[in-house]
Amino acid sequence: MPQGDKRRYTDKQKRKAAHIEQSYEARGVPEKEAQARAWATVNRDSGGGNLSGSGRGKPESHAAARRKQAARSAAARKGWETRRKRANG
Fewer CB within 10 Å of terminal CB in the chain, N or C? Predict the structure, then answer.
């Protein structure tokens, strides 16, 4: 298991990490690395464990998903420019 105690995480955060981990393992990432990446993603989205304390109830930022969407948008723009250039000449 990655470093750190996971008792402070909500059930939703634990489910999210498990799902992300399975996705990485399906792509051939070793189990230990997949766990580390999954928890890093959960931490990036929600800022760590939210089970108790003043941080509980804060909305998730979903920063990881937004970054992927921005990258897709850039790729889509590049593809559109390429198709436009090829169509015109």
Answer: C
